[in-house]
Amino acid sequence: MKNKHGQQVKAATPNRLDMSSFDVTLQQLNDLLTDESGFYSWPTKHFHEVYPRIYVGNAFVAMNVMRLKRIVYHGIPASDTDHFDLSVYFEEAADFVEKALAYKNGKGKVYVHCREGYSRSPTLVIAYLMLRQNMDVHTALAMVRQKREIGPNDGFLRQLCRLNQRLEAEGKFWNK
Hints:
This protein has 176 residues and is mainly alpha-helical. The protein is built from six helices and three strands, in the order αββααβααα. It has one domain: Protein-Tyrosine Phosphatase, Chain A (Alpha-Beta Complex). InterPro entries: Atypical_DUSP_subfamA, Dual-sp_phosphatase_cat-dom, Prot-tyrosine_phosphatase-like, Tyr_Pase_AS, Tyr_Pase_dom, TYR_PHOSPHATASE_DUAL_dom.
C-alpha cells in the first residue's frame, strides 16, 4: 500500500481513538484516515456523496460540462501543500455550501472538488460540517472518510485541529 504522498509504507497497527475526547492530535486524525494496517487509500470513484447532497470528487467530473451545465461555480485558489493556509477560506466555503444546499427550497446540491478530490476539497467539506453542522473534527472527518477515501495533508489537518479547538472553546459542538 501507499501513503497519502504516494510512498510505499507499512505501518504498525494504530491505536484507534477515544471519540469522546475533543482534545485532538494530528496523529489521531491520520489514524482515522488509514485502514487497520496503517495504509491510506486512493478514491475508488471520481466522486462520492459524503453528506446528504454534498459531493466530493476530482476535476474529471468538474470538466464534464453536460453533467454540470446548470452550475454556480465558486473557486478557491488553494495549493495542496502543508504550508498553505486553507483555513482562511473555511468560512467562505461553508457559506457557499450552505447557500448551495438551500437552493430550490432546500433541495440544492453541491459538488466540492480539487484535482483528485483527496485533500483540499474534503478539508473544506469537513470544515463546513464543523462550522455549520456543529460537528467536532473527529465526527466530521470520520463521516467524510466513511463515504470516500481521503487524505488531507498534515498542514490541513493541523488547521482543522485549530478550528476544532476554537469551536470547542465557543461551545459550538452538538455531540459534546
